[in-house]
Amino acid sequence: MGEREEVATRRRVLVLKGGRSAEREVSLNTGAQVAAALAECGHEVIEVDSGLPDFINRIIEAKPDVVFICLHGRFGEDGTVQGLLELLDLPYVGSGVLSSAVALDKVMSKHVFAQTGIATPPFRALRRGEVYDVDEITRELGSKTVVKPANEGSAIGVTIAHDPSELPDAIEEAFSFDALVLVESFVAGTEVTVGVLGNDEPFALPTLEVVPEHEFYDYESKYVPGMSRHIIPARVNEEVREECVRLALAAHRLLGCRGMSRADTIVTAEGDVYLLETNTIPGMTKTSLLPDAAQAAGIDFPRLCCMLVDLALEDRSVLPLGG
Asked: Between the CA atoms of 72, 33, 17 and 220, what dihedral angle is there, to the nearest 10 degrees?
């Protein structure tokens, strides 16, 4: 790669990692790699584990110029840490309080998509303790469904119910992670993800087709090397590729995302494209999708991390949807 040119302005960047969610180990890995990349560019880096009881004091004592949030799932990607940093008057990488909360909540974001004309698979929301009817769900969503906890990432607690007999166990599995569960029609097709970078003028990275070794892109497929293949650009025609990009940019703007996002879509054999979800803090590990797509666009990992720091320090005074 050669000798790297250091950033024009050296910043004191606090990398917030770890946390208390089910994705703690992934977050620690992400944080370590981001910290190394930022240091390679010349930034001063401080790493703080938000799973520690005194992490707020550590943030205050560090006096950072900007915080790079490397937390996934609850207490990191859901607007809670973003709210804390707002109260501390600290700039941070990524989307704001409301954008983060809505994007992570799969039920709420699906309502937003459905109400604004963004194509997304039919769904049903269930709350723990409420009575549900398997036959009714099957009539509404079909015999094959996907069941997800509303507020977890990395496919944690996600199950494919191949027929109605598997649905109750899948729902109970999801309820073990969350009091709110999403049941979604299963849509067969090609998994295409689109990374987006930017604030007021976002742009899309190349489309990336995910080919998992398992039935779907589950936790092991995401984080174990060799358990999935990334194909860039995705093997879809140009019209479909443009639709994937359009949906990714529309969701980024609609949710008021800033800095980065990653939209996960499914493309059917007929060429129909459905948006599954938008991630406001995509994985930043060696096997992650956003860095891979950025690399295909000529943006290596250190440069990507430094770009995100610069985007965090842009004017945040007028933001859409609490972004």
From this structure: 40
Q: Catalytic residue at 215?
A: no
CATH code reported for the domain at 188-318:
3.30.470.20
* Model pLDDT for residues 133-190, shown as the tens digit of each residue: 999 999 999 999 999 999 876 578 899 999 999 999 999 999 999 999 999 999 999 9
Same fold flag, 12-94 and 188-318? no
Fold of 12-94: Rossmann fold (3.40.50)
* 2 annotated active-site: no
Q: How far apart are CA 108 and CA 127, in angstroms?
A: 13
Which of these is catalytic: 21, 154, 261, 288?
154
Residue-level pLDDT at 154: 55
Domain 122-185: top CATH class: alpha beta
CB 250 within 8 A of CB 238: no
Q: Which of 77, 178, 191, 264 is the catalytic position?
A: 264
